[in-house]
Amino acid sequence: MKSPHYDLHMHTKYLGCANGTMEIPAMLAECERLGVKVMGITDHLNTLDKLPLHRPIRDEIAALQTDIAVYFGVELNYQSCDGEFAYSPEVRDELGFQFAIGGIHSPYVESYDLRQIVEIQHRHHLKTCADPLVQVLVHPYWFGKKTFEQRGWPWFDTMKAVPVAYARELGQAARDSGTAIEINACANLVNPAYSSDYVKEYVEYLGVIASEGALFTVGSDAHDIHRLEHIEAAWRVVEQLGLPPERIWRPTGKPLGGKE
Ligand SMILES: [Zn+2]
Ligand SMILES: [Zn+2]
């Protein structure tokens, strides 16, 4: 079964997170080349002072002429352990964000304790699924390798550290709330920090979530124009898991840019 050709997670240069190659017209041209049909631009909103920086992104999307449906999204990050996203219906409506993806971006432990690290991730995954303002849980069990290296901790390189019961519970929570679990190319599938064994285990982990009936979505999470093409790795995993198109979430309604 062929995966729908969506890419619903990518960054621009405007928030200073992606590099200078990530200008919206160039990103669109590359997505057209790759055969992407639905595109979502999702820059970070870690704190509210960054909200005005999303305005030029919105205006550029609205001006696009293309057959691709281009949606204006946002990526949310917890502001602290068990904290909140910098997001509300008012924030959403002020800028007109069409969808929100979100998740945990830190291990949140003082000293190395693998069981505790995994438990904290799991807790935030469930919290994200319970958030009615967030449509997508981003990159479960992605970690920044530098965080581990700087502290001299063993690297997180096996999904065997995650109990199967956690995968099942997340799959059930996502199914019940309608939250889509992200299949993320650059963070999880083609991240040079991870071994091929990790990737194999990661796909098995997604398979357990799938068996509970959850929806999924696909994103490159590209921060450089040459990494947009890695979205194909996420599409391949959709096919590998045998997920039918109705299990792959996308924003609905009129896209801000391009055509429906
Ligand atoms: Zn992220
Ligand atoms: Zn991202």
Describe what you observe in this structure.
The protein has helices spanning 24-34, 55-62, 89-95, 114-129, 145-150, 164-177, 185-189, 196-211, 231-240; strands at residues 6-7, 38-45, 69-77, 99-103, 136-137, 180-184, 215-219, 257-258. The protein has 260 residues and is of the alpha/beta class. The protein has one domain (6-258): Metal-dependent hydrolases (TIM Barrel), CATH 3.20.20. Strands 1, 2, 3, 4, 5, 6, 7 and 8 form an 8-stranded mixed beta sheet that branches. The model has no long low-confidence stretch (mean pLDDT 97). One zinc ion (ZN) binds at residues 9, 11, 75, 221.
Give the low-pLDDT segments. none
What ligands can be seen in this structure?
zinc ion
Structural classification: alpha/beta
Share of β-strand residues: 5-15%
Radius of gyration: 17 Å
Largest sheet: 8 strands, mixed
Break the fold down into its secondary structure elements and pairings:
Elements: E1 6-7, H1 24-34, E2 38-45, H2 55-62, E3 69-77, H3 89-95, E4 99-103, H4 114-129, E5 136-137, H5 145-150, H6 164-177, E6 180-184, H7 185-189, H8 196-211, E7 215-219, H9 231-240, E8 257-258
Parallel strand pairs: 1-2, 2-3, 3-4, 4-5, 5-6, 6-7
Antiparallel strand pairs: 3-8
Helix pairs in contact: 4-6, 6-8
The structure holds zinc ion (2 copies).
Residues 75, 105, 138-139 line the site of one zinc ion.
